[in-house]
Amino acid sequence: MAVAxxxxxxxxxxxWRYFEEPKRAPKGAxxxxxxxxxxxxxxxxxxxxxxxxxPTFDALAKRGLKYNEFHTTAMxxxxxxxxxxxxxxHAVATGAITNVAIDEPGYTSVIPKSAATIARVLHDxxxxxxxxxxxxxxxxxxxxxxxxxxxxxxxxxxxxxYGFNAAASDQFRPELIxxxxxxxxxxxxxYIFDKDMTNHVLDWLHVKxxxxxxxxxxxxxxxxxxxxxxxxxxxxxxxxKGSFDMGWDELRQQIFAxxxxxxxxxxxxxxxxxxxALPAWDSLSPEAKRTxxxxxxxxxxxxxxxxxxxxxxxxxxxxxxxxxxxxxxxxQGDNGASMDSRRGAVQELQSxxxxxxxxxxxxxxxxxxxxxxxYSNYNAAWAWAQNAPFQWGKQIASHLGGLRDGLVISWxxxxxxxxxxxxxxxxxxxxxxxxxxxxxxxxxTEVDGVKQQPIDGVSMVYSFANxxxxxxxxxxxxxxxxxxxxxxxxxxxxxxxxxxxxxxxTTPLDPSKFEWELxxxxxxxxxxRNLAAQNPAKLAExxxxxxxxxxxxxxxxxxxxLIGRVGAGKRPSLVDGRDQFTYYPGPARYPQGNFPGxxxxxxxxxxxxxASSNAAGPVVIIGDEAGGGGLIIRDGRPSYLxxxxxxxxxxxxxxxxxxxxGQHEIAISVAAAPDIGPRxxxxxxxxxxxxxxxxxxxxxxxxxxxxxxxxxxxxxxxxDMAEPAMSELAIDRVVxxxxxx
Length: 741
Hints:
Layout: E1 2-3, E2 9-10, E3 31-36, H1 55-62, E4 64-71, H2 76-85, H3 118-123, E5 128-135, E6 160-165, E7 176-178, E8 181-183, H4 193-211, E9 217-222, H5 234-238, H6 247-261, H7 286-319, E10 326-332, E11 344-345, H8 359-364, E12 377-378, H9 380-386, H10 400-403, E13 404-410, E14 420-422, E15 426-427, H11 431-439, E16 446-447, E17 450-451, E18 475-480, E19 483-488, E20 491-495, E21 516-520, H12 536-552, E22 580-583, E23 602-610, E24 617-623, E25 628-634, E26 637-643, E27 652-655, E28 662-672, E29 681-687, E30 690-697, E31 706-709, E32 729-738
Parallel strand pairs: 3-9, 3-10, 4-14, 4-15, 5-6, 5-9
Antiparallel strand pairs: 1-2, 4-13, 6-7, 7-8, 10-13, 11-12, 16-17, 18-19, 19-20, 20-21, 22-32, 23-28, 23-32, 24-25, 24-31, 25-26, 26-27, 28-29, 29-30
Helix pairs in contact: 4-7, 6-9
């Protein structure tokens, strides 16, 4: 008789002659639960001195270890590619986020088959594997309903995936994917993604324990929290009312004091000053303070709520006797807290399309933050406060505010020196080798006939029992959008950021002309004292180290233009170069990059049939984080709303007359209007060949985002457009085409 992990017994399995024997993990191999949150600062969570209560994170730290010198790449996709492969991000073609991939070896966003993921390696060694949450590593042109799917999570070795393929997703109406299939979230009023995701984690574990109780599991949980949109249940937001009325300057001081008191940072650490680009809290009006304080209340509620949901998973592991031999690696952030938004916004991507909301607009809409009608972010100063004690934040790979995140590792069966701090210098590429050593797995030299490139990371297992052991990572390069640094044996050389992450200036930057700074981190934990003038020889040594690493790992060419990389023609596309597209109604959802949107010089033409004078329903809906547009039929009348930013200033509504019963053709035409302005356009609704209504737009922002035909887009932000159900309306097709010149 054989005894399974759940204590049950069964007859010994027969020895098959021809059936393939199931893969078996090494004896005693632990379960692995890997968690990576999004855009969380070093000083955000209570575990590392922050203001946001994270009792699950706290409890894991008490029965495990806290690492206070752990580093990411300063941005999302690169950190995740490095985490999953154990290779430097540029070495696996992910030197920047997938949305700005370019045709250079280090930046295509196509993780090569020569870099098998942790999931694939563990799967081939007897583990059951699953991925829940955010996937931001599939090339954007491959995220549509036709794939290809070999660079989706299932293709990377995950048996199961439930989450979304994007930089971010609405917590209330996410664009969900289950394995390779687009699905819709439940329509219930209390739906929120972090709870739904957790439910799916628990369901998967229950099925796994029932079907394969002997196999260890590898579960990767990667929520969208705290990436914008900052959203949380109303009652959780209410818990933080008034908690941030002291403002960001005082908050940063409080975090710093708690970090020192708890021994999270050295006693001689220095709190770096607020950059000139950020305002002092005391300079704000009472109305602005109320608005900004609420932004932080919402963000805090989001992280606290996820921590609560994760606690349900930990409780289930403990209740099922699995916790003792589960190695939990909890990385609180994939980079520093995000300084992407100057003032914050109700619709976070407004600034990316050239719209910066005024403080007056934010004050007017302050109460919408965190609600289903928002896609909000906070003022960059809140991110700076949470990145205490370091300078800068997300995107800035030259300074620790963008690079350093709190890490906790818990493994009751193996880690006995619980509740301690570890200060060895490590990097996100070191997680994979740590898992391999803990599992007793040797990474393969070849996978599916493809020779594997070297793993760049080193294991951290040596640190579990020895706080004083010297770090096995002595050197590491960092680069993100031109900001770069090089660490070696306690020293770090860093370029000076030429502008803040929220500065959307289009003036070209030459990274070769960035100034350099020098810091001795062994004596200056927070990177506060620039020693470049005093020690030019050390600076030159580290600059040379960076140059050599950059050549080795495909970092060149170094470019600093984030916005310039967003446009068409920079990467493969299913829409670039075409002048006509035909879509049909159905369940398909076409994500951004797989749907043409509606730009100047284009039209969309819908062929449909009404069965009564009260026909109703959606025809075409296009939406993204910034806003959207939609053609619907309401009470038998066509209605088109153009609202690219979520603001009143850009909103245009066109209405047509009552449609007779029968077949109709309704077109929305967007023609350039150079007589009005260089970016102006005339939007017209044309019903059965006749113009029903037109409007001139002084600055036309092309609609972008995912699109659906004959139903509502889960990301639609057309809160002022009613969403009538489909009734007495049949859509034949919708054609997008370029207007004749």
